[in-house]
Amino acid sequence: MAEANQLFKEFKIQSVSEFFRRNAAMLGYTGKVRSLTTLVHEAVTNSLDACEEAGIPPYVRVEIEELGNEHYKVVVEDNGPGIPEKYITHVFGKMLAGTKAHRNIQSRGQQGIGISGAVMFAQITSGKATRVITSTGDDEIIEAWVKIDVDKNEGKIVKKEKHPNPKGWRGTRIELEVKNVKYMRSKQGVFWYLKLTAIANPHAHIELIEPDGKLIVFPRSSDEVPEPPVEMKPHPKGVLTDDVYRLAKKTRRNTVRRFLIGEFSRISDKKVDELVEYIAALRLIKTVQDKKLQEQYYQKLMEGHVKAVLRAFRGYTKVVKQVAKIMEKPPEKLTWHEAEEIVEAFKYMKFLAPPTHGLRPIGEENIEKGLGGILKPEFVTAVTRPPKVYSGGIPFQVEVGIAYGGEIPAGFDLYRYANRVPLLFDAGSCVTTQAARSIDWKRYKIDDLDRAPLVLMINVVSVHVPYTGTGKQSIASVDEIYNEIRLAIMDAARRLQTYLSGKHRRLAQVKRKKTFEKYVPEIAKALSVLTGEPEEKIKEYFIRFIESRFASPEVEEVAAEEVAEYA
Amino acid sequence: MPKRKIHRERPKEKFSYDPKRVLKMLDEHARKILEDIKAGKNPHFDIPMRGLSNVYFDEKSRLIRMGDKLSRRYFLNVAHTRKFMQTLLIMAYVKRLVSEGKHASLREAYYANKHTIPGTRENTFEDQRESDPIIEDLERMFGVLREEMHITADRRGYIYGDIVIRDGEDEFNASKLGSGGWAVPGTVEHIQFPEINVDYALVVETAAMADRLIEEKFPKKENALIIATQGQASRGVRRLIHRLHYEEGLPIIVFTDGDPYGWYIYSTIKQGSINLAYLSDKLATPESKFVGMTMDDIKKYGLENVTEKLKGIPPNKKGGPTGDYKRILEEMEYPWFQNKEWQRQLKLALKWGVRIEQQALANKSLEFVAKEYLPEKINNGDLLP
């Protein structure tokens, strides 16, 4: 057996950056096409977020330049608020740092590793620093080359220049040089990603210059900049012991009671009193030996009869008083076991549904604008469902858009989004795909889904989207989400059905009218022979008759039994 | 030889053909369409429905008759409009034929009206199967024969006997045209009979038998008119039989093979057919009688050796009844075969499983049918109803 000291010679503390350098796949840097898309995604997401927070209608331009074999320069420029000089290293250099990582908030990005991950990826494939040009609109433009010190998990500026800003330009432009990637116009590529992004963000003007110099513009179709999402306090039904324990250490409140009321949503003074009773009841139930009886108590507690459960035990007031003491001590003194008790009690208690003001759906009108503007369909509709909750306390919301016909080619397409971010990978395992395929489309006048000129867009909005893996490209099949998606699709599909049946009816009407008109000359000729009236006159009578019958919205068809014709 | 019981009777109806009637019908119907369209109404034709569901047996007149179910054919109905157009086309064509005194066959009527509809790749008629039913529709709608509309049926059958026929400008005696007799034309509406010197008409199923009778000088000796149908009687022949019976008072006696097909030929002459039920009044002759062949003849004349087996599977065997057996069973259900004599014949046929042809009588001798069989049965009144 080797000496422990011998073994630990090789032991090193790995920095966060070092970890992600070795595990770039976890950030989405796998495959040559996908890596490029991820890179662009991080930069574009940052731009859109920044613009929205500043209330600026985004203008984002992406330029991909081919420098050599699998060697590209990616330029992303926006008209956002710009980055103050002293934050440049933080934004681009430090992993797990950012404005949102630690907050319960709906967000597009990867909790602070996004753009720094991109800088890291560029650095480890090309060895080049990322060039950042930014200005907050004041009198200087900063140009900086940023690198990451992997060992220290720190950004460093390798070169910096300042330029005058006579025209008051404001925004950020970053240039990343990457190798080992590939530009392709596939459904996992940059073009497709930007197209889907443009659809979900109709307030953004997005441009792309492809390696061959071709300019593609996804113009803005809405003037309304969405409100940035707001932070939401966690709901008691959605927290884990660790959340309570950790938050208790960090809080500035001075009692556990204040902490619970202040840091969670839907907890009031009265709820804390109730919580005390529940914790006491749970403690008492655990003392019962008889398993069957214990089961009955749990059942009663679940039904809300906490007082009845307490009264079943002699001297229960003593226990209640003990528990009540927990609520009055400083939160940092809260023990892991106590936190565990609190979370367990939450499971038996009833709370109001979590607030949903933090959710920022795209909105029906904007989805219709986005789909309409980019895809140019003949029909478009959207449904935004009211917020719902999954696994007890995590609010989410589902939106669905349907675009049909027009310039959409035949073949069903599903555009998946989570918090407005297009999901391009792992479609098969995604709850959105499952829900879309579970719909009986024939019911909605789509006889052959795979040949219909149909685009279905699904956006799942939540402070915590349950992804299936670290790649964040596929949403887990949570029953509540699955059902909401289905309901939304069916709602939208019903409108499509109405449209299609109206269209079919109109087409059929035109066809029928033509059938009748076709025979008029023959009929007129024959009737002229038979009656001696001039042919032209007779023709007029018939045409006028047809016109009058088709002028009314629905032509009365002769009742079926009356017209029974033999074969 | 017993005294003849059958001879010519008094006429029951007058010759009825009047071309003005067809023209009037055409005019009435066309005017109504025109009035409707002027008034903004959806114009239509009321056409008596065809098919078994609109056919019944009239016990009183003993005819298959058409019921009063109508089907409406509208202009403004996608399923009807093409037929509506075709109906008017044929009506206009009939008007031209009748007013110009010309006749056309069904096929000519089809070709004359077939053309491409301007501005389309569609023809007014794609097939004769489209024009024939329209002509039948008009017959039913107007209650006139297509012959009256100058559209002729197939010609089949001939007559031989001492009657004078006037056909247009020609006048001749049907016993002076050689052994072939006078071929019955497609339409017999314009035929007149200035002179009739026969006592009755014998309708014969097969040409071979008719030829035999002519050769044996049966028409002359028995004072009979031979009408050869050559299988199922054509409309012309049926109409001729009808007219000879009702307008000239000739009794009608039918002579067919002793098998389901022969009996059906008789049944059609007598009561009319389901297909042409709407014309029974003009085509059927319920007073006609049946001379043979019958099942009794086999025993009576010792013809057991010259019978043929019925085709198909008998009803008591597995898979049966089929073929002739099935046909006989169907005929047994016909209202006009609901009498003792016929039921007995049909039952015997089933029991013995045999059929007997007219020509089987030649087994006795070539002259037998003309000299013994027919005169005996007819003069004795040994006939089936």
From TrEMBL, chain A:
Q: Which domain of life is it from?
A: Archaea
The entry marks the following residues as binding ATP, namely N46, D78, T99, K100, G109, Q110, Q111, G112, I113, G114, I115, S116, K472
Quote the EC number: 5.6.2.2
Q: What terms describe the molecular function in GO for this protein?
A: ATP binding; DNA binding; DNA topoisomerase type II (double strand cut, ATP-hydrolyzing) activity
GO BP term, example: DNA topological change
Indicate the segments forming the Histidine kinase/HSP90-like ATPase domain, all copies.
31-182
Q: Which SMART domains match?
A: HATPase_c
Alphabetically list the UniProt keywords.
ATP-binding, DNA-binding, Isomerase, Nucleotide-binding, Topoisomerase
Q: Which reaction does it catalyse?
A: ATP-dependent breakage, passage and rejoining of double-stranded DNA
Q: Does the keyword Ribonucleoprotein apply?
A: no
Say which enzyme class the record assigns. Answer: isomerase
Q: Which InterPro entries match?
A: HATPase_C_sf, HATPase_dom, Ribosomal_Su5_D2-typ_SF, Ribsml_uS5_D2-typ_fold_subgr, TopoVI_B, TopoVI_B_transducer
- Family as reported in the entry's similarity comment: Belongs to the TOP6B family.
* Quaternary structure (record): Homodimer. Heterotetramer of two Top6A and two Top6B chains.
What is the protein's known function? Relaxes both positive and negative superturns and exhibits a strong decatenase activity.
Q: What name does the UniProt record give this protein? A: Type 2 DNA topoisomerase 6 subunit B
**Which species expresses this protein natively?**
Thermococcus peptonophilus
From TrEMBL, chain B:
UniProtKB keywords: ATP-binding, DNA-binding, Isomerase, Magnesium, Metal-binding, Nucleotide-binding, Topoisomerase
Q: Which SUPFAM superfamilies match?
A: DNA topoisomerase IV, alpha subunit
InterPro entries xref list: Spo11/TopoVI_A, Spo11/TopoVI_A_N, Spo11/TopoVI_A_sf, Topo_VI_alpha, TopoVI_A, TOPRIM_Topo6A/Spo11, WH-like_DNA-bd_sf
Mention one GO molecular function: DNA binding
Task: Please state every residue range assigned to the domain named Type II DNA topoisomerase VI subunit A all-beta.
Answer: 158-194
The UniProt entry, under CDD domains, shows: TOPRIM_TopoIIB_SPO (cd00223)
Where does the Topoisomerase 6 subunit A/Spo11 TOPRIM domain lie? 200-378
Known catalytic reactions: ATP-dependent breakage, passage and rejoining of double-stranded DNA
List required co-factors.
Mg(2+)
What HAMAP family does the record tag this protein with?
Top6A
- Known role: Relaxes both positive and negative superturns and exhibits a strong decatenase activity.
Q: How does it assemble?
A: Homodimer. Heterotetramer of two Top6A and two Top6B chains.
What is this protein's record name? Type 2 DNA topoisomerase 6 subunit A
Q: Which organism is it from?
A: Thermococcus peptonophilus
Q: Which gene encodes it?
A: top6A
